[in-house]
Amino acid sequence: MANGIRKVKTTDIELKDRLVSINRVTKVTKGGRTFSFSAIVVVGNEDGIVGYGLGKASEVTAAIAKGIEDAKKNLVRIPVIKGTIPHEQSAKFGGAKVFLKPASEGTGVKAGGAMRAVLESVGIRNVLAKSKGSSNPHNLVKATIKALLQLRDAYTIAEHRGIPIEKVFNG
């Protein structure tokens, strides 16, 4: 675990991909305009593992495929407890600010757009989420994953403090 990031090895993990956003970008040359596509994709096993990737190509399908390959190289493990997150968390990336709050069973994923794709890919079924500032999908995905990486469960805290798990709750 370097710098607080929990990397995951991709061996025998069934990953599902979700397309978050696709943009047509234009390069102007002396011969005219050249169009290409940029796709941001989120992959996850819906059981605590998620990653995102960016793919660029002259065709939509190739851009998505490159995004999926890039996402598989950047997988991280997130603590999910009973289908929700362990505690409230906020994060900022660029102009996008996100706030995540645990929710009780049956609430569902109360999040929009890019945040919803990330949270569902992780396997979080009950969460309240709010995005403030920029609605740029790239920055929202990165801010959401940054917030998820800052989450710590009781086992991690006990290990970090060097105490038994019971003492975490009983002070």
Mind explaining what this structure looks like?
- It is a single chain.
- This protein is of the alpha+beta class and 171 residues long.
- 29% of the residues lie in helices and 35% in strands.
- It has helices at residues 60-72, 113-122, 137-149, 154-161, 165-170; strands at residues 16-29, 32-44, 49-57, 76-77, 89-93, 96-102, 109-110, 127-133.
- Strands 1-2-3-4 form a 4-stranded antiparallel beta sheet. A 4-stranded mixed beta sheet has the order 5-6-8-7.
- Strand 7, helix 2 and strand 8 (127-133) form a beta-alpha-beta unit.
- Helix 2 (113-122) packs parallel to helix 3.
- The longest helix has 13 residues, at 60-72.
- It is elongated and about 70 Å long.
- The two termini are 26 Å apart.
- The mean pLDDT is 89.
Write the layout of secondary structure elements.
Blueprint: E1 16-29, E2 32-44, E3 49-57, H1 60-72, E4 76-77, E5 89-93, E6 96-102, E7 109-110, H2 113-122, E8 127-133, H3 137-149, H4 154-161, H5 165-170
Parallel strand pairs: 7-8
Antiparallel strand pairs: 1-2, 2-3, 3-4, 5-6, 6-8
Helix pairs in contact: 2-3
Order of SSEs, N→C?
EEEHEEEEHEHHH
Q: Could you report the average pLDDT, rounded to the nearest whole number?
A: 89
Tell me the strand percentage band.
25-35%
In percent, how helical is the residue content? Answer: 25-40%
Spans of at least 5 consecutive residues with low confidence = none
Strand order of the largest sheet: 1-2-3-4
Task: Specify Rg, calculated over alpha carbons.
Answer: 18 Å
Largest beta sheet, briefly?
A: 4 strands, antiparallel
Silhouette: elongated
Structural class: alpha+beta
End-to-end CA span: 26 Å
Instruction: Give the count of helical stretches.
Output: 5
Record field, number of beta strands: 8
